[in-house]
Structure formats: structure tokens, C-alpha cells
Amino acid sequence: MDNNQKKRKQSNFIIQGSILAIASIVVRVIGMLYRVPLTNILGNEGNGIYSNAYEIYSILLLISSYSLPLAVSKLVSATIAKGQYRNAYRYFKRAFLFAFIVGASVGILTYFCADFFAGTLLKSPLSAYALRVLAPCIFIVAILGVFRGYFQGLGTTIPTAVSQIVEGIVNAVVSVVAAKILFDIGLKSVERADELSVAYAAAGGTLGTTMGALSGLVILIFIFWMYHRVVKRSLKRDKTGVLDSNGEIYKLLLVTIIPVILSTAVYNISNVIDQGIFNNLLLGQGYTSRQYNTMWGSFSGRYRLLTNVPIAIASALSVSAIPSITAARVSGDRNGMLQKIQDSVRFTMVLTIPCAVGLTVLAGPILRLLWHSGNEEAEIMLTVGSISVVLYGLSTLTNGILQGIDRMRIPVRNALISLILHLILLVVLLQIFKTGIYAVVFSNIFFAALMCFLNGTAIRKESGYRQELKKTFILPALASLIMGVILLAIRFGLNGLIGEKPATVLALPVAAVSYFISLIKLGGVNEEELKRFPKGAILVKTAKKLHLM
Asked: What residues contact 246, with CB distance under 8 A and at least 6 apart?
């Protein structure tokens, strides 16, 4: 393979990751925007009820089918790297059957055990309404994940990106409309109108999740139907004659899926365990369910909602990196594999570090801009906890890198170690220091930081990768610091002149431009690297017109 081909493959890897990152950001922004009116309907208590149901749903999804896109993409990309197009298609079909059975089983279990999960485990019985609405979504997402994994394994993230955006739009519209309608229905209840109105509204909010997933699945089925001719032509190109048996396929699927499920589940189960510990300990301290649901609603509906937007970048890059790194490893291209690791880490840091600084500096103004009212708890959480954007972004990506280099058990081990120490810290902060909801923020930061350290050590040991520091961490941090100073000047210099909200709106594009200029002038990115960013050619052209490079 000549240098031009290598560069094209490397560029394609970043482009595919960028497409998915942009789609993920768009979806997160849509999610953030619709959560504003949804939060206004639900209130903090309703947000807590909604969050309780969603956390249970998330962990059941993780256990059943969340890992399917990653596992399918990894197996499909590995077989295609060997020219085994027929095997790749067989993996898709067998994964589809697996998803159908497991997704249906867990969906049925969720529906009939909703009262136990919500009432017994999380001490939030009103969340059972919303959890039952989410039950069919587990089955839908399982099927959806197989289609997404197949396309990603083929080297294209466009179908996933399109389906995610459609899913996000439908979710937003249905969630708000259904929440409002069901809230009004709950108010008409003869008994417990206050409680039932927010419980019904939370169920309406989760209806958007289910309908959004269904719309995304319809879109992917249509794309797959349109793409089927290309698939048939690729099957004819397969001259290897290699066809794995059904037993071998299911064995490889399970060997791949189980470690991914474990690592992803352990990595994400902390949210459910955190909420269970938080609710139970505060209940023991004399708080009512309404009080701790309100606190958790502020955490999940505002702090975590905002920090999750930039974290989506790392998740998207992880999805793109795994099949790409796997293909490089299978084909024996060690240098290409190491380059992909470096590019994905750098790209993640270049984008998440300024996001963390921006959220820290503009925590209060952004919250008041979106929700039209102050929330002291959420502002403090966002100010001190925005570093989680960088840490969760990097830990998510390094999980994917380890899976891509076929070290599937290591993320499980690291996540278990981090989870145990994280939970000890959470209990200490809640029970001894009585720090309330801030205990969850601090313990989550600790969890992500420990994951970064353990995963980074493992990647270095298993692949020989040596992390470059200056252009990956130091220069983006310096550029972000310059941006933060400019944001502070705008915040305190213009608030009195034009008002806080107009000043905040003005500050956001100024932040992006100032960071872009600072990063280039500090030497944090060169022309070739900038071209691999989303709309890189336009960015290079703009930089040259401004005499920045």
C-alpha cells in the first residue's frame, strides 16, 4: 500500500468519525433543546421520576443489546479486511436473530417487572409508568443496533448518522407533546393528581424515546433495502471460499459481545447504582422521595444533559475507531493502527477541552439562557464538574481503543476497579460529609479519571503506543485558557450593557473563533491535520485568508 492510499484511509477514518460526531452533537443539541420545554412541564420532581425510569432502561439496554453495534462492526470489519464478504453478511444475519430473541425477552421482562425495578430498587414507584413505555424500545434498539453495526463495519457511518438525526427529531417532538397531554390527563385524576400528573408526564417524555427509535429503525431498513444491490455485488467479489458455520459465528458473536456488554455495562451501571445509593441513603437521612427526586432531577436534567453534548464526540469517535483499528490490526498495519489511536485521542481532546472550559466559565449564564431561571445547585455542579467532559470523553474513547486492539477483558477489569473505588467514595461523601448531590458529581469525576489512567496504561502496554502530550493536551489547554479569559471579559464586560442573555449568545461564537485562532497560532494543529477535521478544507481556506497559516 503506497503513502497516498494510507493517507486516504487515514483521512476516511477521521471523516467517518467526524460524520458520526457531528450527527451525535446535532442529536445532543436537539435533545438539550427539547429537554428545556420538557423540564418546564415535568419540573425537577418529574425530571427525577423520568431519570429513574431512564436509568433502569439504560442498564437493561446495556445488558441486552447496547453492545451490538460495536460488536457487529468489529466482526464485520475484521472479516471484510480478509476479503470474506459472505462471512460478513452471515454475521449480520445471525446477529439479527440474536438481537430479535434477546431484545424481545428483555423488553417483556422490563414491562412486567417495572414495579419491582422502580419501586423496590430505586424507591421511586411512580417511575414504573415511564419504564413500561420504554419496554418496547429495548426490542427496537436491539434490531436498530445490528443495522448500525453492519454499516459501520462496512466503513460508512452515514446511515447511522441519518437515522440518529431522524430519531432525535421524532423523539423531541413526541416527548414534549405527549408529556403535555399526559400531564393534563394526570391533573384530572380524582386522587393523587399532583403525583400522577408528573408521573404521566414522565411517561409521555419516554414515549418520545420509543417512537424516535422506531423512526430510526424504519429509516435504516429503507437504506438497507436501497443498499442491498451493493451488498449482493460484494458477495460475488468474495473469492475466499471461507464460510464459518453457524456455531462458529454464534461463538464469535458471544465472545465479542459478552466482554463488550460487561465493559459497557460496568462502565455505565454506575449511574443506576449511584441513583440507588443516593435515594436510599437520603431516605435514611430523613429526606422524602420528592426531595431526592428533585435533587436528582437537577443533576440529570441540567448538569448531565449539558455535559453529555461534548461527550458525544468521544462516543462517536470510539464507534468509528473500533472497526478502523480492528481492520488495521487484522491486516498487520501496526503503524496505521498507532496513527489511528493518536488521531482519535488528539481529535477528542482538541474538541472536549474547550467545551469543558466554556461550561465552567459560562455555567450560570448558559443555564439561565436555556431554562430562563437560576438553579444554584446545577450552576455549582457545572462549574466544578465540567472537567468530567474531558475525562469521560477520554475514558470512553480508550475503552473503544482497547476493544479495537482485541483486548476485550481489560476495559471490564478497569471499569470494575474504578466502579468499586468510586462507590466507596460516593458513600463516604454522602454518609460522612453529607455533601448531597455534589457527592455524585465528585465521585463520577474520580471514576472517569481512574478509568483514563488504567486504560491509558493498558494501551501503552498492549500496543506499544506512546502518548504525545504537547499537541494533544498542553496546547489545546492553553488555547482553551485564552478562550476562557475572553469569555470572562465578555461575561462581565457586556452583561451590564446589553444584558446577560444577549452577552451569552454573543460569547458562544466568539469562544469558537478565539479558540480556533489560538490553537493555530500556538501550533496545536497544522494544515494537514486541520484538513481531517469536519469541513477541514473550508477551515484551512479560512485560516489562510486570515493569515493564520
From this structure: 94
Q: How far is it, in rounded angstroms, from Cα 83 to Cα 80? A: 5
Cα 186–192–196 angle (5° rounding)? 35
DSSP string covering 209-277: HHHHHHHHHHHHHHHHHHHHHHHHHHHHH--S-----HHHHHHHHHHHHHHHHHHHHHHHHHHHHHHHH
pLDDT score of 455: 96
- The type of residue at 331 is S
User: SS3 of 2, please?
Assistant: coil
Q: What CA–CA distance (Å, rounded) separates 318 from 323?
A: 9
Chain segment 151-191, per-residue pLDDT in tens:
988 888 889 889 999 999 999 999 999 999 988 888 876 56
- Per DSSP, 124 falls in state -
Let me know if residue 325 belongs to a domain.
Answer: yes
3-state secondary structure of 526: coil
Q: Is 105 exposed, middle or buried (0-12, 13-18, 19+ CB in 10 A)?
A: middle
Question: Span 251-278, mean pLDDT?
Answer: 79
Residue 122 in domain: yes
What single-letter DSSP state applies at residue 191?
S
Q: What is the 3-class SS of 142-164, one letter each residue?
A: HHHHHHHHHHHHCCCCHHHHHHH
C-beta of residue 149 within 8 angstroms of C-beta of residue 71:
yes
User: Residue 144 in contact with residue 216, Cβ under 8 Å?
Assistant: yes
Looking at the domain assignment, is residue 91 inside a domain? yes
- Reported as a single tens digit per residue, the pLDDT across 25-81 is 788 778 777 878 888 888 877 888 888 888 889 888 877 777 788 788 888 888 888
Q: Which of 346, 358, 355, 363 is nearest to 389 (CA)?
A: 355
Nine-digit cell at 295?
435533587
Q: b/e per residue, 291-312, with b = 16+ CB within 10 A?
A: ebbbbbbbbbbbbbbbbbbbbb
Q: CA 519, 523, 527, 531 torsion: positive or negative?
A: negative
C-beta separation of 514 from 466 below 8 A: no
Taking the CB of residue 407, how many other CB atoms lie within 10 A of it? 18
C-beta separation of 447 from 419 below 8 A: yes
CB 448, CB 391: distance < 8 Å: yes
Decide: 120 and 40 in contact? Cβ < 8 Å: no
Rounded CA separation 430/464 (Å): 41
pTM: 0.77
Q: Which three cell numbers, joined as nine digits, stand for 516?
A: 480556533
What is the span of the domain harbouring residue 314? Answer: 6-467
Residue 466 is classified by DSSP as: -
- Structure confidence at residue 67 (pLDDT): 75
Ordered alpha helix ranges (H), 65-126:
68-81, 85-112, 114-115
**Would you say residue 472 lies in a domain?**
no
| Number of independent structural domains in the chain | 1
**Residue 507 phi, psi dihedral angles, 5° rounding:** -65, -30
